[in-house]
Amino acid sequence: MLDPFYPVVPDSSWVTKLVPAGTRLIQLRIKDQPEAEIRRQVREAKSVCVQHGADLIVNDYWQVAIDEGCTWVHLGQEDLVDADVEALRRADIRIGVSTHDPAELDNALSIDPDYVALGPIWPTKLKQMPWAPQGTERLADWKKLVGDRPLVAIGGLTLERALLCLKSGADIVSVVGDIVNHADPIGQARAWIAATRKP
């Protein structure tokens, strides 16, 4: 079972900080780097996660994930068009998929993903979103549709909002800004861990 606390970080230096501090599930979302640097960061992040028994999820770069022997990738809807899902399955890599509306959920479920993410639950400052905030009510609807696979809530989450998401049907709460922009990211991560992890 995946841990409920799921930070998304922009480079491997964050993995080396957060995983030894107790994070068990983390997404490496690298943007605008040459392939050699992407591979270096994936290797570094994977090494730290293996050492600490954490799950590393590689965003977008599915071929690098295969080449580097990773166990998880996260794909956006646009990535689903280009990704070789069969190659990922042959490599025994599990797949998470982003969704924002019912058509995207149908598209995601067509590949039988290992988790489904719904967002943005609240407005987010990190990237321009063409979708209105989903609200926590949508989580309950999505959970019925995704069945036993984990449902991830993402977008504008604070710790208080994350707990609302968990009560509303999410199994996992994903966070970017409330960790990476926090004055004490390690302390904040530990607060999330303490609040979200079942005893």
Overview of this structure, please?
It is a single chain. By secondary structure, the protein is α/β, with parallel strands linked by helices. The chain has one domain (5-196): Aldolase class I (TIM Barrel), CATH 3.20.20. It has helices spanning 12-18, 35-52, 62-67, 77-82, 85-90, 102-109, 136-146, 159-168, 177-180, 185-196; strands spanning 5-9, 25-28, 55-59, 72-75, 94-99, 115-118, 151-154, 172-175. An eight-stranded parallel beta barrel has the order 1-2-3-4-5-6-7-8, surrounded by six helices. α1 (12-18) packs parallel to α2 and α8 (159-168) packs parallel to α10. The two termini are 14 Å apart.
- Judging from the principal axes of the Cα atoms, what is the shape? globular
CATH architecture: Alpha-Beta Barrel
The residue ranges in which pLDDT falls below 50 over 5 or more consecutive positions are: none
The whole-angstrom Rg is 16 Å
User: Helices and strands, in N-to-C order?
Assistant: EHEHEHEHHEHEHEHEHH
Would you state the CATH class?
Alpha Beta
Structural class of the helix and strand makeup? alpha/beta
What portion of the residues fall into strands of 2 or more residues?
15-25%
The number of helical segments is 10
In short, what is this structure?
The protein has helices spanning 12-18, 35-52, 62-67, 77-82, 85-90, 102-109, 136-146, 159-168, 177-180, 185-196; strands spanning 5-9, 25-28, 55-59, 72-75, 94-99, 115-118, 151-154, 172-175.
Q: Topology, please?
A:
Elements (H helix, E strand, L loop, with lengths): L4 E5 L2 H7 L6 E4 L6 H18 L2 E5 L2 H6 L4 E4 L1 H6 L2 H6 L3 E6 L2 H8 L5 E4 L17 H11 L4 E4 L4 H10 L3 E4 L1 H4 L4 H12 L3
Parallel strand pairs: 1-2, 1-8, 2-3, 3-4, 4-5, 5-6, 6-7, 7-8
